[in-house]
Predict the 3D structure of the following.
Amino acid sequence: MSPQPTPWPRALEWKGGLHLLEQTLLPQEEVWIEISDVDSLIAAIRRLAVRGAPAIGCAAAYGIVLGVRESQTSETWLQRLNQTAQALLKARPTAVNLQTGVRHMLREGEQLANSETSFSEWSPRLLKAAQAFHRQDERLCEAIGRHGAPLLPEGGNILTHCNAGALATGGMGTALAVIYSAFQRGNQLTVFANETRPLLQGARITCWELQRAGIPVTLQCDSAAASAFSQNLIHAVVVGSDRIARNGDVANKIGTYGLAVFAHKHEVPFYVAAPTTTFDFDCPCGDAIPIEEREEQELHSIGLTRIAPEGIQVRNPAFDVTPAHLVTAIITEHGIIRAPNEEKVLAQAGM
Ligand code: MRU
């Protein structure tokens, strides 16, 4: 019996090679692209053809497979393994899942090389490790959805920012997994999706995902969020994360911090949904999280049309940090961390 189709789309697939849903074209065009080498994958990650922290981690795991597969000897295989890992790690700086995926594959590769396994089996075994990492992400998303769904108020309006949905992960999403799960359990909620300037992941991707799943969604511009809180239109906020420091500070798409401040002011719960692959236990606090600065062109122009005058300075950070004290709870695959702090974050990881 073939598996039931899911109401959510997939960001990436391995079918004899790596295939990505080209997210820069959504929602106008649904185009799958094949990625056959590491440089093309790095370029795809940088231009956000594949994006969202867990999805980048899964894509990078497959990228390691692409990097080694032409190697003819065990020496070149190991050399390519390390070179590919170093190149992929530089693709985007903030999402720690990229490192999690790459390090998982490095460990697997080194274990294989130190085992009795014959060289002809190394690459197929590495592919299996990448597929297992991808499947694991799928399970983590489901667990996040299961734990988070009961937190959402019945029939409430739920605000989300950017896209932390299926297209940001190897499964059903993180923030949107909570929403999909609550909806499947009969919660007649409505999602308020911030458009998410400047690349509009909220308007383009979150609205597309939710609409095709039949979940009511209302798009608003980012600067409409404050008035939505003041008019009691928002009953809970749920967002994803690119990296969570060990003290519970959370990096996510630029604009998230502002939403946390509004939510705090208006006593609305602010939830962050993320798998433990998004936790960086070596990172002491939000100040130590590297924040990606993206190209000026994304701000001074819309498409190819320049809208700001020539010669101005542009500041285009892709992420911001929400301090732990503004986070009501972090929803992970293990359960709920209420009022997160270092002790609770480490306990969740069994540390
Ligand atoms: O620049 P993007 O589109 O990769 O940013 C994505 C986000 O900020 C998401 O909220 C985050 O990666 C969590 S995805 C489950």
Remarks:
- The chain is about 40% helix and 15% strand.
